[in-house]
Amino acid sequence: MFIKRGTVNDLGHVYLFSEERMYGLVNQGLKDMVCLDAGQDTWMRICQQVGLSHHDFDLMEPYDDALTAKLVAEIAAELNIDGPEVLTRFGKYWIKFTAHQGYGQIMDLFGKDFKTCLKNLNRMHGHMGSMMPGLKPPRFTVVDRGSSTLEIQYSSTRKGLAPMVHGLLIGLAEKFNEKAEIKLLLREPDDESDRFLVELGGV
Fold first, then answer.
1. What pTM value is reported for the model?
2. Domain count of the chain?
């Protein structure tokens, strides 16, 4: 499904809670990804479509999730891809972006390899919460399903961000030079979390 301009309310329901607020670091990351992939002119058009008079964001300033939803919708329209694909690409890019913003060392504190880092995601987000007042981090549960298989259960107050988490997991695997096949599992109606299957050593 392609996200069309003018469907921001639907996007807010499916992908982001408009009642929440998100740090500007996220929106700035979206900008940097778009500029890297499609150029500054594309970003300027996106800003015009969403009514932004500025083209950068205060990294530690909270912004309404509704703005992020609008940006994702416009990026999808400009790049002619669907919203989940935007989020997956962004999740993967987020690992490199935050490392350049000075958060790479924090990631390294909570794991020297991919598997250890996954099991310490809640601790890492707790540490981040001490630096970002009001942060509402997601929760991760890691379940061993065999010597080389993990199930990651992800839950958040924000809905529909599983594609971004999919990209994040791919990006983390690449950061640690870990070959892994990562699948987003089909969510059943009564599931309270999204689930990912991680096959270590996969292609």
1. 0.84
2. 2
